[in-house]
């Protein structure tokens, strides 16, 4: 047996309730009943806390992976710059124009190559992982 209750809701909340009920195709009373059952459920806060904990753990792992990838990228770039600066001799003034033209050509090739690599989904971090641990899965 069900007991009838009459209560008043603020207009905004009443609209939200009506909209949600019409979208779901259920009665407003059913939504209120489910909300009250969830509110009074003794394990409701524990379930919510556990769900939030799992989500935060997953997000923490994702952030740690991102941090690792950024560290690898920064180190790779720093190593390349150091190598390039120490191994590249200065150019004579007469070769400057030709070197700039060649540099633009190489940069365009680099951007095209980067675009193809990103389109395939291949990343430097994955490639380095395979180089370091050949038994790792691709």
Describe the structure.
- There is one protein chain.
- This protein is an all-alpha fold.
- Among the domains are: 14-43, no CATH class; 92-138.
- It is 76% helix and 0% strand.
- The longest helix is centred in the middle third of the chain and has 44 residues, at 44-87.
- 0% of the residues are buried.
- The model has no long low-confidence stretch (mean pLDDT 86).
Number of helices: 5
What number is the mean pLDDT? 86
- Shape descriptor: elongated
SSE succession: HHHHH
The helix content is over 70%
**Uncertain regions: pLDDT < 50 for 5+ in a row?**
none
Write the layout of secondary structure elements.
Layout: H1 11-24, H2 28-40, H3 44-87, H4 96-120, H5 124-132
Brief descriptors of the model:
138 residues; mainly alpha; 0% strand
Give the structure's gist in a few sentences.
The chain has 138 residues and is mainly α.
